[in-house]
Amino acid sequence: MGGFLTGASGECLVTENSKPDNNDPLAAATHDLEAAEMRLAGARAEEAAAELDVERAIEEIKDAERDRDIVEVHVTHVNEVEKASFREKLSSTLQQVWDKSYIELKIAREPKDVFQTGGEHPKSLMNYLGLTLEEARRQKVIENFRFGIASETGGA
Amino acid sequence: MARANELPTQDLHAGAAALDEDIPRVLRIMGASSLEELGWSRLNKLSLLVPMAGTYQGNEDSYLVRLGFQAYRKWPPSAQFVNPETKSYVYPDDQRFVPKLTSSECYTHVAYRRTPQAAPVQLICCSATLEFYEFLHQVRPEHVWRETDTFLTTITAIRKALTSFYGGRFSASGQ
Q1: Which residues are CB-contacts of A34 (< 8 A; sequence separation ≥ 6)?
Q2: Contact assignment for A154 to B126 by CB distance below 8 Å
Q3: Which of B110, B118, B109, B66 is nearest to B88 (CA)?
Q4: For chain A, is the Cβ count within 10 Å smaller at the N or the C terminus?
Q5: Are A120 and B159 inside 8 Å of each other by CB?
């Protein structure tokens, strides 16, 4: 009986010296059966691998959907010259982000602190604290997720 | 530490040292490696130049703020909008280099006089500027400059007024 080799993709390779004797119908049929069984085994292995890939893809989609609802928030404490970054849900309100900022910064809240946008054009967010990050972005109250905390100054 | 109704005292050596110390802290928090990267420049040991901009009726106007550290950090830096060419403010010639800021936290005057006889000077009326205390301006205890504050507090306060309470540029006549 001739031997079989399995190719990289699981296909059956019949070696030159394993060719059945054409004059023996039983040997030929046995050879065909064995070759078919090898192909079936290869196909089942491929199916199992494909099922694994599908499971992984589903997990990736779930992760991506989870990530889509979470953003990286950057907060600068102007007076203390400290900054912190943390992940926050888009459904969190600006008030919640402000509150969490003190925990992340490890700085105590001062009575006259103001929550504002970050960057070169800081704008007070005190009238928008009830908005979620998503709402604030959609309403163009914020352009990004960079914020600042600064103590109110006196003037006029 | 700064106190209401107390005149600031200058300490040039301490001011320059505190500025040396605070520049890296401020750069770190702003994610910059140098003053130049931010467009800022150190004119001398006691002066920092910071460009700023305000948008009024769709037009963006550029300004230059000069911060002085002669009494820093016990007191805030002095702050003046200056002529970009001379890096100074001379009344009345340089009034057009001053923005109209009308925030309750930061208000600009191009010709402030403490007494009717006094010479007019520019005043960025904000508890984060030295001039505010030099004029013995009334101030609430919670607004008084703290020694933990840095010049970033001053810059942020002025920028915030430029963002939301900017009424255009003063004219050459001060209107």
Answers
A1: A4, A12
A2: yes
A3: B66
A4: N
A5: yes
CA–CA separation, B29 vs A83, rounded Å? Answer: 6
Domain B12-167 has CATH 3.10.110: yes
- B56 near B171, Cβ under 8 Å? no
Each of the 156 residues of chain A gets a pLDDT tens digit; together they read 444 445 544 444 444 445 666 688 889 999 999 999 999 999 999 999 999 999 989 888 877 776 779 999 999 999 999 999 999 999 999 999 999 999 999 999 999 999 999 999 999 999 999 999 999 999 999 999 999 999 999 987
Residue contact B146–A79, C-beta within 8 A: yes
Which residue in the set B102, B157, B163 is minimally distant from A153, CB to CB? Answer: B157
Distance to chain A for B109, nearest Cα, Å: 9
pLDDT > 90 in chain B, percent: 84
Residues of B in contact with A108 (CB under 8 A): none
B80 vs A: CB within 8 A: no
Kindly list the residues from chain A whose CB atom is less than 8 angstroms away from the CB atom of residue B26.
81
Considering only CB atoms, which residues of chain A are within 8 Å of chain B? 76, 78-83, 110-112, 116, 120-124, 148, 150-156
CA distances from B172 to A16, A26, A62 (A): 100, 110, 62
B98-118 pLDDT per residue, tens: 999 999 999 999 999 888 888
Per domain, the residue ranges of chain B are: 12-167
| Nearest alpha carbon to residue B77 among B105, B51, B54, B48 | B48
ipTM of predicted complex: 0.90
Give the nearest chain A residue to B100 (CA atoms).
A156
Q: Rounded to a whole number, what is the distance in Å from the CA of A134 to chain B's nearest CA?
A: 22
Alpha carbons A5 and A14: distance in angstroms, whole number = 6
Q: Which residues of chain A does B73 touch, with a Cβ-Cβ cutoff of 8 Å?
A: none
